[in-house]
Design goal:
alpha/beta; binds adenosine-5'-diphosphate; 772 residues; 44% helix
Amino acid sequence: MNFENIKIPVLALRGLNIFPEMTISLDVQRDISVNAVNTAMKNEQVIFITAQKDAEVEKPEYSDLYSLGVVAIIKQILKLPDNNLRVLVKGIRLAQLEYVDSYTPYITGSIVPVCLDGIKKKTKATEATVRSILSLFDEYFNYTRHINSEVHSIISSSGEDFERFTDLVAANLDISVEKRQDLLETLSVSKRLKMLLKILTEENEILALKNSINEQVKESIDKNQREYYLREQLKVIHEELNGDSFNENEIDEYLKKLDSIAVSDEVYRKISKEIKRLQLMPDNSHEATVVRTYLDTVFDLPWNDETPEMTNPEKCKKILDKEHYGLQKVKERILEYLAVRELAPDKNGMILCLIGPPGVGKTSVVSSVASAMGRKFARLSLGGVRDEADIRGHRKTYIGSMPGRIINAVKNAGSSNAVILLDEIDKMASDFRGDPASALLEVLDKEQNHSFRDHYLEIPFDLSKVMFITTANTASSIPPALYDRLEIIELSSYTYLEKFNIAKKHLLPKQLKEHNVKSSVIRVTDSAIKEIIEHYTLEAGVRNLERELASVIRKAVYEIRTTKVDKITVGIKEVERFLGVRKFDEKNENDLSEPGVVNGLAYTSYGGTLLNIEATVLEGSGKVELTGQLGDIMKESARAAICYIRSKATKLSVDNSFYKDKDIHIHVPEGATPKDGPSAGITMATALVSALSGKAVRQDVAMTGEITIRGRVLPIGGLKEKALAAHRHKIYNIIIPYDNLKDITNIPEEIKDDFNFIPVKNMDEVIKHALI
Ligand code: ADP
């Protein structure tokens, strides 16, 4: 083919140019282009293809065309609708459009061939450039992938033919027409190589940047999509495996709950880990149930539920006064404690402990304190707790494990600043399962309790805002380490008058309200209340009294319902009708006038009680038997008493050899209650002297005091409680150790004058006052 100044149809391309060696399919629309192709097809299928400088120009003239283009061969044409054509062309060689001959019906131009300025001698630098271009092209190929892999391999194998190589690479770059034209017009191959190197480097950089931006955007968008997709997959897998549906809502619910609580990162991580674990478990599996229970427990906790606190001492006092009769000192101490706590909340690490017999209002006072402060209230009993796990919970790995009592109480209270009553801390024991007292210490310690770790929860929970208040029946059995942290407030037994007032002003209205009856319908007379106190209850507090009152009201309500009466007045007769015969009657009391039976006074966890100590002497060989669940100290007291009697036998008109030929049996009734302590010393000695000498003991006398082997009487504790007990039993002559005289001031004024206290220094005086 001779190309010299040949007249040839010209195809003007818009937004595209072609290179030699390049095969490309083009859609041709314009008439001038369609005509040019058709004419070329009629001749040798040769056509000159060049790009328009401005793609917008409809009818390009010479100046609108790049003069350097490519002579190409039309390989195939395909007629499309609307007289359009699809043309497959292959570039043959470079040529220059010298001038245009005519513009209609198509452009005809005169062209001259153009040769590249090839590389004469291959240098190492050229080789290096080619290799760099190849590796950059590989990279480019990896980024774009729009080049077909066949082309890629042709390019890779055309390294030796530099002209062809540059054409091939340039043809496959997705760059602007201007740049491509630049490359086309650069006739020096070595320059072209450098240009390619530069263009490829730039393009790769841009592509890398674009890719990383895309990645980032995709990553953030995809995270949610990915999770959604994975979850969908998981659902299908679940259904396939278990035949049941996977509860995705549940997981969403948990995740929502997790986002709604304010917790530390550690806690957040741990909970979300558990939720993810649940997601992977078969729905009905045992493990899933365990995790579900765990999550429910965690979300039930008041993580950020706090009730606004009112600390107005005046208001607190009003509420306490309104809800409780008497207890002046107790109320004052509590208010002082609250005031100090408010001023220096962190410094005062002491915990309030209310000590007193059952039923004296410890629990209800604390509950009033909570309501006065606007805090929620929960109570947990520590009675019988021996295991540390009771306080701290069991690890989740145990079957049926649960959180400990503390966390449970917080959960029940439903607020993170609740008042929690730790009831009966004196009834806590320790054994091989760990020491619950030390776990409790951690709970109460301000330094540690802001991150209390329950074994079951495994995550720290802040207990520092909780106000703990403890109660106990006796101080002596509180674990010593705990005792040190407690600020003790003592509540003592109620006197008869106090009980009457409490019943009238509080218990009765409360019970009427609970039974939903008006006081005009059921009227309980004062004498009925007195009857119940005196003959139906015998207790330090008012618990049984409340119970009996409830019982009276219940029965009265029943009577109103079943008979025609519409109101009832409860007097003494009605009390007997409703509650049966008197439970405690003076006439029913033991007949104490026989020798060997003495009224002792003891202080137990139920308050003061009257103990009838009995001693019997039988023919025998000097054995001593003690029954009635006596502790070691009590047994020692009995031996001290025997020793004293031996030393004073003649003076006491007791047979000198009683310890050799008589057996002695001392019994303290009410055997179910363990008793201990030295204060029954003089009582046992008196019982023994009475039994051995055959002289009876005054039944209107009660006594308390420790005895030494020489017969000295030592002071005892709990005189107030013991006096109250004696008063309940209507015994007013009380023999007390001389050194306890000072304690008489503690005895309530209203009953103090009823007593005849007989202070004694030694056993001789006791015998003088007690025996008839
Ligand atoms: P404790 O905790 O000391 O065993 P509780 O608090 O359970 O005693 O009291 C038993 C009942 O007696 C409760 O109904 C309580 O309201 C009532 N109660 C006790 N003391 C008083 C008091 N001083 N005033 C009014 N009610 C009282």
